[in-house]
TrEMBL record:
This is SDR family oxidoreductase. InterPro entries: NAD(P)-bd_dom_sf, SDR_fam. Gene3D superfamilies: NAD(P)-binding Rossmann-like Domain. Coiled coil: none annotated. It comes from Candidatus Acutalibacter pullistercoris. Belongs to the short-chain dehydrogenases/reductases (SDR) family.
């Protein structure tokens, strides 16, 4: 068990990658504080609590940390999975929608890290992992807010890693496409879901989509100081070779 007695905050634990990451930490013995915009998460455990929060609001991010300390007395690890994807180009996207996406994907990471570092610095084994995207490095059409917001997450990760070294290690995972509720609607609307999956797989040199477990494995490695204790400010591409 890699995280026995550690207290871990996972944002976006109510869905998709965050939910998978949260389950991984529970399996590895951690006590879990999940958060997200949904009223609750699906995970049930006597070692887990859930705090509903819109992380664009600094006070709500602070409340997640306060509830973690109230329930478990400390915070050792933070994983920022919460995020949204809006589809649109420069021409079709209103400034308000652009700002909203940046506010959730980048501002939410800022707010959560800012609230959590006050507790993380007290831990003997602290770390932060952020979830960016390969699209934060390699733009595609119709993601005018998403790509810049994820590029920002990469740089924010490096800035926090620099500011909090040597105390807190801070690293970023860049997933490729993973079939989660974030993209499930595209499969529901597709005439031929198998053909859609094949077309997504063909975007990657490894010729497949990613799995939630691929992301959880990367987060496990980067959060465990025995495995990655000499790594900080790094970007781990878990995207089937799309950035080769
Ligand atoms: N699924 C993919 O293909 C893919 C690819 C690359 C990167 N990512 C990134 O991985 C992360 C997780 O994506 P997913 O596919 O699991 O998405 P998802 O839609 O399944 O889950 C998103 C989670 O974010 C939370 N969230 C959204 N807005 C929030 C807010 N304002 N405040 C707090 N929480 C909020 C939701 O409550 C939910 O728990 C995101 O940052 C996403 O950009 C996903």
């Amino acid at each position: 068990m890699k995280f026995e007695n550690k207290v871990v905050i996972v944002t976006g634990a109510s869905s998709g990658i965050g939910e998978g990451v949260a389950k991984m930490f529970l399996e590895e013995g951690a006590r879990l504080v999940g958060c997200g915009v949904e009223p609750q998460m699906k995970i049930e455990s006597d070692r887990a609590i859930y705090v509903q929060a819109d992380l664009t609001d600094p006070a709500q991010a602070q409340n997640v940390v306060d509830k973690a300390v109230e329930a478990f007395g400390q915070v050792d690890k933070l994983v920022c999975c919460a995020g949204v994807t809006f589809i649109g180009s420069l021409e079709t996207t209103e400034y308000s929608a652009f700002l909203r996406e940046v506010s959730i994907n980048l501002g939410g990471v800022f707010n959560m890290c800012k609230a959590a570092v006050k507790e993380l610095v007290k831990s003997e084994d602290p770390s932060i992992v952020t979830i960016g995207s390969d699209l934060g490095v390699r733009p595609i059409p119709e993601r005018i807010g998403y790509c810049p917001s994820k590029a920002g997450v990469i740089m924010l990760t490096k800035c926090i890693a620099l500011e909090y070294a040597p105390k807190i290690r801070v690293n970023c995972v860049l997933p490729g496409l993973v079939r989660t509720p974030m993209i499930e609607q595209r499969f529901e609307e597709a005439q031929d879901p198998a053909a859609l999956e094949e077309s997504y797989a063909s975007l990657y040199p490894l010729h497949k989509m990613g799995k939630v477990a691929d992301m959880a494995n990367a987060v496990r490695f980067l959060s465990c100081s025995k495995d990655s204790g000499f790594i900080t400010g790094e970007i781990m591409n878990v995207c089937g070779g799309s950035l080769i």
